[in-house]
DNA sequence: CCACTCACTAATGTCAACAATTTCGTCGTC
DNA sequence: GACGACGAAATTGTTGACATTAGTGAGTGG
């Protein structure tokens, strides 16, 4: 498989980092990764460089690659940008949404309600990601989608710790319902506003985490 | 200088592409570039990969690297994102602007007026870039600035052809004046609105270019 | 005269070995 | 016992060579 092995390795490594198998600041020793993914140092190095360009890992000269640590402050900055991009995408989605899209969005919301009722936090978190992805796809804005993926990858760790906050779904579910209602109702301005409200509450949750975890 | 030669080569190559020394779809033959920049294929390859990650060049398997062609449609998408990011930065700049910032901004506007009066299009275009950079610096939003740099690099060619449109400065100068007035007046909402108006007019200029150049 | 094949060239993708640097453990000294 | 110099192991950065593949042009057959 020397065909597109580089891409495969890149994606596998990205998945491993996003899954938390390598934690921030952990050194990524090339030979170990080569063994794990069954590839050569050359291929692995290109993969590392790609991920470095996307801000997932960082290089230190003569000290190799580490998983990049994204501070909470930076996560807030990133979410501020997400507010803008996802707000626009929500508005566009409201303009372009089709009948089948509407059915899919409502299905997702239904599943989210069920997951919350059963307190399945991980399921809820996954559905959350799928809902945002669905809105991206409907909006069909290549540039914004590409940037959002980068930003989301960088904050996935914080996103995760947020998902485990006990009362979190109870706060975010009605917000998601409002977003979907506006999109399915084809109200762009309202969809954008609802998305702003939602992500603004994510920022506030981050801020709460900051004060909650700092005093330790 | 094997120290940070990779970064130096990357920047040199980036500058060359942005300067138009290599045109879209032109093949970037590694050996030639090595000779030009006095470096090895290995270093040059990492530089190419970096620029590929930033969307300036693209790789085709077994066919090496080419300067990536950014269509006018994509340039419009990119500008749509710039509207959001630069709008936020303008608002933030209005909140954080200092006395010395104000003097600098007004100085830039003064120079732009002079350049327009003398019809020095290239000077005006350069001042335009410096004004936007100044606003970025004042806003101090690392994430947004990083993304904007990528986006701007990708559209520099279109930006350039726009700068050469005869009546263009006459349209954009008052818009720039309005932006600076709002920032120096510490009016965030107004600064954001003025920036939106400005970049929206850039999009419309792009659209005009589309119909102007297509029928040939 | 055209189309097709085939070798030849040029350029890229990959590798394995080498050099340089950091890291870590050991030893000696104070 | 602690601290610092020294040296070996581990790890990364780089090089040059090799394999593979697209591009090209001559030559041949129809």
Largest interface: A-B, 22 and 23 residues
For this structure, the CATH topology of the largest domain in chain A is Four Helix Bundle (Hemerythrin (Met), subunit A)
Task: Tell me which oligomeric state these chains represent.
Answer: homodimer
- CATH H-level homologous superfamily name of the largest domain in chain A: GntR ligand-binding domain-like
- Secondary-structure element series of chain A: HEHHEEHHHHHH
DSSP strand content of chain A: under 5%
- Termini gap of chain A: 49 Å
Largest sheet report of chain A: 3 strands, antiparallel
The spatial strand order of the largest sheet of chain A comes to: 1-3-2
Indicate how many domains the architecture of chain A comprises.
2
Assign the CATH architecture of the largest domain in chain A. Answer: Up-down Bundle
Percent of residues in helices of chain A comes to over 70%
By helix and strand content of chain A, what is the structural category? mainly alpha
State the low-pLDDT regions of chain A, or none.
none
CATH hierarchy, class of the largest domain in chain A: Mainly Alpha
Instruction: Please report the total strand number of chain A as a whole number.
Output: 3
Describe the structure in your own words.
- 2 copies of one chain form a homodimer.
- The longest helix of chain A has 26 residues, at 188-213.
- Chain A is built from 9 helices and 3 strands, in the order αβααββαααααα.
- The N and C termini of chain A lie far apart (49 Å).
- Chain A has helices at 5-18, 30-37, 41-53, 72-96, 99-117, 121-139, 142-163, 168-184, 188-213, and strands at residues 27-28, 57-60, 64-67.
- Chain A has 2 domains: 6-67, Arc Repressor Mutant, subunit A (Orthogonal Bundle), CATH 1.10.10; 72-212, GntR ligand-binding domain-like (Four Helix Bundle (Hemerythrin (Met), subunit A), Up-down Bundle).
- A 3-stranded antiparallel beta sheet of chain A has the order 1-3-2.
- In chain A, 75% of the residues lie in helices and 5% in strands.
- In chain A, α4 (72-96) runs parallel beside α8.
- With 216 residues, chain A is mostly helical.
- In chain A, β2 (57-60) and β3 form a beta hairpin.
- Chain A is globular and about 55 Å long.
- At the A-B interface, α3, α4 and α7 of A face α3, α4 and α7 of B.
- The first copy, chain A, binds a DNA duplex (30 and 30 nucleotides) through α3.
């Amino acid at each position: 498989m020397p065909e597109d092995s580089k891409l495969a390795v890149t994606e596998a490594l990205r998945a491993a980092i996003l899954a938390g198998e390598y934690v921030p600041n952990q050194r990524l020793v090339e030979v170990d990764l080569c063994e794990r993914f069954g590839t050569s140092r050359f291929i692995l190095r290109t993969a590392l460089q790609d991920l470095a360009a996307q801000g997932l890992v960082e290089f230190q000269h003569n000290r190799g690659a580490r998983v990049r640590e994204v501070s909470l402050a930076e996560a807030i900055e990133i979410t501020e940008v997400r507010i803008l991009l996802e707000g626009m995408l929500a508005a566009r989605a409201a303009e372009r949404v089709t009948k089948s899209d509407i059915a899919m969005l409502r299905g997702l919301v239904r599943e989210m309600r069920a997951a919350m009722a059963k307190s399945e936090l991980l399921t809820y978190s996954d559905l959350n990601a799928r809902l945002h992805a669905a809105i991206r796809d409907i909006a069909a804005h290549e540039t914004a989608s590409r940037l959002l993926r980068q930003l989301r990858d960088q904050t996935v760790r914080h996103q995760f710790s947020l998902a485990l906050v006990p009362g979190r779904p109870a706060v975010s579910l009605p917000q998601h319902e409002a977003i979907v209602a506006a999109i399915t109702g084809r109200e762009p301005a309202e969809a954008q506003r609802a998305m702003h409200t939602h992500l603004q509450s994510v920022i506030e949750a981050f801020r709460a985490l900051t004060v909650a975890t700092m005093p330790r």
